Amino acid sequence: MTNNIRFVLLGTTHTGNIGAAARAMKTMGLNDLALVNPEGFPSAEATSRASGADDLLFKADICEHIDAAIKDSKLVIGTTARKRHLDIPVIDARKAAELLIREATKNKVSLVFGKERYGMTNEEVERCHYLVRLPTVEHFSSLNLASAVQVLAYECRMATLNINTQDQPDKIADDYVDAGKMESFFQHYFDVMEKALYLRKEGHDSLKTKIRIMYNRIRPKKHEIDILRGFLSKLEKKLK
After folding, report:
1. How far does the chain reach from its first CA to its final CA, in angstroms?
2. Maximum distance among all alpha carbons in the chain?
3. pLDDT of the residue at 51
4. What CA–CA distance (Å, rounded) separates 226 from 157?
5. Cβ(146)–Cβ(24) under 8 Å?
6. What does the domain layout of the chain look like in residue ranges?
7. 82-121 tens-digit pLDDT
8. Does domain 179-239 have CATH number 3.90.320?
9. Closest-CA residue to 22 (of 145, 105, 132)
10. In terms of Cα–Cα distance, which of 142, 154, 61, 146 is closest to 101?
11. In whole angstroms, what is the distance from residue 220 CA to residue 32 CA?
């Protein structure tokens, strides 16, 4: 099941953190690493800090955008060190790991880490079904990227050891829509809204955010998205 779990690092600026993250993952049985616009990678420092986990670096999926990194995932959880004014459920690391491991028995899932300096952007957060925050102290809440990866990787390992493989998989739906198909749906949705003059091309970003969060909270299944796409296509024809 751990083969279905992808750790995604966004815009990492220190290559040593990439190597240390790979090491943290491998010690906990996690092997799928994706890097979105990493700076200065590959590098000797990353390989050195990986300390034997350089196979993860060699096969890491290098992407230009978060959408490419998570496109096959049906559950996406983002990490955040600060409070967000977005209506996305915030859970702790243990709960996040349990959700990832349970879902990974049938589906691809992703855990996303933002840039070292300021974390995930709001646009990146909008791709997530949940956010996870570590219970750090208020006056010093920033955690090193590789350390955060280690904490979450450890929790995933513990959840893997504790899962009841006999009865859990049957409870997990395998017909959720993956992130790639959801992004295609959102673009179709927004395009039709613009053609219907309900949405302007500029100035309605907050409305788009609310729509994304709403559907992510619902987690539509494939046949439900097919119904909505069919309706949108019919409406599009009428608008023409």
Report:
1. 47
2. 60
3. 95
4. 36
5. yes
6. 2-171, 179-239
7. 767 788 999 999 999 999 999 999 999 999 999 998 889 9
8. no
9. 145
10. 154
11. 25
Sheet holding 130-132, edge to edge: 61-63, 32-36, 5-10, 109-113, 75-79, 130-132, 90-91
**DSSP characters over the chain:** -GGGEEEEEES---HHHHHHHHHHHHHTT--EEEEES-TT-S-HHHHHHHTT-HHHHHT-EEESSHHHHHTT-SEEEEE-SS--SS---EE-HHHHHHHHHHHHTTS-EEEEE-BTTTB--HHHHTT-SEEE-----GGG----HHHHHHHHHHHHHHHHHH--TTTSGGGS-S-BPPHHHHHHHHHHHHHHHHHTTSS-SSS-HHHHHHHHHHHHHH--BHHHHHHHHHHHHHHHHHH-
Q: Within 10 Å of residue 63's Cβ, how many Cβ atoms?
A: 18
pLDDT at 135: 87
Tokens describing residue 118: 């300021």
CATH number for the domain formed by residue range(s) 2-171:
3.40.1280.10
Q: Which of 104, 128, 111, 112 is nearest to 4 (CA)?
A: 104
CA distances 237 to 45, 188, 196, Å, are 55, 13, 11
Q: What are phi and psi of 163, to 5 degrees?
A: -65, 140
- The Cα–Cα gap between 184 and 162 comes to 36
Under 8 Å between Cβ of 80 and 119: yes
Structure tokens at 167: 């009865």
Mean pLDDT for all residues in the chain = 92
